[in-house]
Design brief:
Length: 576
């Protein structure tokens, strides 16, 4: 079989890597240019710093017309690495000293600080020398400091080489990874299929079936199955053709025998010869009918294949509908969680508001009595003192309960907003988890179950807080609903720690645990141990998606029957 000049996998790999090479080159050049501009700004700032350091002494030397002192200061400036040249002019525009790199300048005096770019990668910083004496200012000259691209490059040289080396290493690794993946997943299987198809033997088609060892159910397996299906059809057709040939051979043999008998007894068998011819015609008709049946069977097979393709299209549509329904169920689960928060916070707020209403009613009643005593001129200092004491206690009671209600509303408001938003922000992880659990207290404060949180203080993370709220809510509600069915007092522990640039959360309960089979399906959509009892099977599935997609982390679970359930969640402290 002729070799393929341009392989499909090679062409695909070439296009993918070409795009990557172009992007890598653009990004690397952009980083180098940005580094150059940043370093140039630093050099210009250092030149300005030199001006602040040397201008006063240089101005005094110019004022005193001490040219030797001016040259000494100039030599000191030239010893600084970033200064590659300088020019000092007097107030009349005459050059007092020029050292190192220098460029032609305007004869006009410098009146303000100026940064200019020159040819050959040279740039300058010019500033006037102003001497102040007796409250008056007098310009005694100006100074121009020169630096160049060489100074900037010497500072960014290591960074540039590191960026280029990093791009080369990443590109080399990606090329190797892509080549390995394309070879193992596409080129080698296709080559194997091509070699097997090249060994096709029409005489022994049953030995020409394709064998392909791949782990995933992909298009190559579909190609193998379709090809093997054609081989099976060919084998069946060969069997039928062989049977027809055998029947025809038998008929021919029988005909030869009859012809021999006819040749030997032609005179005696003249009448029976016609009957034999009729029998042969009948067998011929049967053979033609059999061939028609074969053609009809082929048509039926083609019809069945067409119907199978239609069913496959219908199945694909059903899968798309199922995925949409699953997404709607996930969103419904999130809104149901938010509804639970509303119910809980309403219940918690009802108590302090009820106490506040009672206190306000009591205070109003005492005011009415006080007003009546005042109008009847029967108000005594003792009554007034008693009212003041009661009013003070009532006001404190109102403030405490209304403050508690305000805290609950603020906590709920932040958690509710975060659960309906995917925006990222910086927040204290420990305080936020406490707010989430406070909004969930209604679910377990009527029980004897305990929820404990251990989190380092001031652990600031940058991510979507709604994802954290949903994860903590789902895991807590799951444990309360599933773990403690046969246990009066249960414990839920949430331990948080920072390891390098990662947040590690350990969420565990001491409930009934899960079997090995249940644990293997824990993160699957629609899996629940309370099927038919209100469980949707989406709680841990949503948690898994939030950890792996929203937080770019990973989640693992360990459990044994009777030993509780433990989740380990790891995600970056910052998502940037």
């Amino acid at each position: 079989m002729a070799a393929v000049k341009t392989g499909l996998s090679r062409k695909l790999l070439t296009r993918v890597l070409s795009v990557y090479f172009a992007l890598t080159l653009i990004v690397t050049v952009g980083q180098i240019f940005t580094e150059y501009l940043s370093t140039k700004n630093h050099v210009e700032e250092e030149l300005q710093t030199l001006k602040n350091t040397f201008s006063s002494s240089l101005t005094r030397a110019m004022w005193e017309i001490n040219d030797d002192q001016v040259r000494a200061i100039a030599e000191g400036l030239m010893s600084i690495p970033i200064v590659e040249g300088l020019q000092v002019r007097g107030e009349n525009g005459n050059f007092i000293t020029e050292q190192g790199i220098r460029k032609s300048r305007s004869p006009n005096p410098v009146e303000r600080e100026v940064i200019e770019d020159h040819s050959g990668g040279v740039f300058s910083y010019s500033f006037p020398l102003v001497f102040k004496f007796a409250g008056r200012e007098s310009t005694v000259g100006d100074v121009t400091l020169y630096s160049s691209f060489d100074t900037i490059f010497s500072r960014i040289e290591v960074g540039v080489f590191f960026l280029i080396g990093n791009a080369i290493v990443k590109t080399t690794f990606l090329v190797f990874l892509f080549m390995t993946a394309f070879r193992t997943m596409l080129s080698e299987p296709l080559q194997n299929i091509t070699e097997q198809m090249g060994r096709f033997d029409p005489e022994r088609p049953e030995e020409s079936k394709l064998t392909l060892e791949v782990k995933d159910d992909n298009e190559l397996l579909q190609l193998r199955d379709s090809y093997n299906g054609v081989i099976d059809d060919l084998i069946a057709s060969n069997h039928k053709l062989k049977s027809a040939q055998e029947e025809l051979t038998a008929a021919n043999t029988k005909l030869d025998d009859q012809n021999l008998v006819l040749e030997q007894e032609v005179a005696k068998k003249t009448a029976s010869l016609s009957q034999i011819m009729l029998d042969l015609e009948q067998q011929k008709d049967e053979l033609i009918a059999h061939q028609r049946e074969l053609r009809q069977e082929n048509k039926n097979r083609q019809y069945i294949e067409s119907e199978l393709r239609k069913k496959n299209d219908e199945l694909a549509g059903s899968m798309q509908t199922l995925n949409q329904a699953q997404q709607q169920l996930v969103e419904s689960e999130r809104m149901a969680s938010l509804g639970g928060l509303v119910a809980g916070i309403t219940h918690d707020i009802n108590t302090p508001l009820g106490v506040s209403v009672t206190a306000a009613s009591f205070l109003q009643e005492r005011l009415i009595n006080l007003k009546q005593d005042f109008e009847d001129t029967s108000l005594t200092s003792k009554s007034m003192a008693s009212f003041i004491d009661e009013a003070d206690q009532t006001a404190k009671l109102l403030l405490n309960n209304l403050g508690r209600a305000s805290d609950l509303i603020a906590s709920f408001k932040q958690v509710a907003v975060d659960q309906t938003s995917e925006n990222e922000r910086d927040f204290d992880l420990g305080e936020y988890i406490a707010e989430v659990l406070q909004s969930l207290q209604f679910g377990y404060k009527q029980t004897k179950h305990n929820v404990t949180v251990n989190c380092p203080p001031e652990l600031i993370v940058t991510c979507a807080p709604g994802a954290i709220a949903q994860i903590v809510s789902n895991l807590t509600v799951n444990s309360l609903n599933h773990a403690f069915e046969d246990k009066a007092v249960g414990n839920i522990n949430l331990n948080v720690e920072a390891v390098d640039d990662q947040v590690v959360m350990h969420f565990e309960d001491d409930g009934k645990g899960l079997t090995k089979d249940e644990l293997s399906q824990l993160f699957d959509a629609f899996f629940t141990t309370k099927r038919g009892s209100g469980g949707s099977g989406l709680g841990t599935h949503i948690v898994y998606n939030l950890v792996t997609q929203s937080l770019n982390g990973k989640i693992d679970a360990q459990s044994e029957p009777g030993k509780g359930l433990r989740y380990t969640i790891t995600f970056p402290i910052s998502q940037h």
